[in-house]
Design a protein that fits this description.
Blueprint (H helix, E strand, L loop, with lengths): L1 H16 L54 E3 L2 E3 L9 E9 L20 E3 L7 E7 L5 E8 L9 E4 H7 L6 E9 L3
Parallel strand pairs: 3-7, 4-6
Antiparallel strand pairs: 1-2, 3-8, 4-7, 5-6, 5-8
């Protein structure tokens, strides 16, 4: 039993460290034409057409992931996911992740799809749903939380490429947002 728990812990930590927030965000130099994203991350070479028309995630009842909601440590900090069914509303900085993590496993075990309406949060339940509003232009989207991250103290949430596109902050790399948890009706 102890050996299997240790194995599960190692697998979970490895998955978390390989997730979107495992590397510090670094934007390309201004005027480089790359926009604000980490080194070799960014948009795919052939993104699907009409990404701005991809529908938002729709909150639905889903069981909580068995392993992705356990306490974990990343970069020396302990995170305790909140599995209570309670409201959440906070303002902070959103960043996004793209091709560097496309098709890699998220903390939920699902492959990351940079063209889906998903996000990563260090402590919200997996899965859960949030409305993210860009405070500079008041655009908002609904995403499904299926990953852990970002692991920087100055970031609140990481969003998929498409969610960031719809919120209008791809070129800046990050934006001030409000994140509010939504519940199925």
């Amino acid at each position: 039993m102890r050996r299997s728990l240790r194995f599960v812990s190692v697998v979970l930590v490895s998955a978390l460290l390989g997730a979107c927030g495992s590397l510090p965000s670094q934007t390309a130099p201004a005027g480089s034409g790359k926009g604000g994203y980490y080194l070799d991350d960014g948009p795919g070479s052939h993104p699907p057409e009409h990404l701005d028309q991809i529908p938002d995630a729709v909150p639905k009842k889903e069981p909580l992931h068995k392993f992705a909601n356990k306490p974990y440590t990343a970069f020396g900090k302990v995170y305790v996911p909140d599995t209570a069914n309670k409201p959440y509303k906070e303002r902070g900085v959103a960043s996004w992740y793209g091709k560097r993590y496309h098709n890699q496993k998220t903390s939920s075990g699902e492959p990351y799809d940079m063209y889906a309406m998903t996000g990563a949060h260090p402590t919200l339940p997996i899965p859960s749903y949030v409305r993210v509003t860009n405070l500079s232009n008041h655009k908002s989207v609904v995403v499904r939380i299926n990953d852990r991250g970002p692991f920087r103290s100055d970031r609140l949430i990481d969003l998929s490429y498409t969610a960031a596109l719809k919120l209008g902050y791809l070129n800046q790399g990050s934006a001030e947002v409000e994140v509010e948890r939504l519940f199925p009706k």
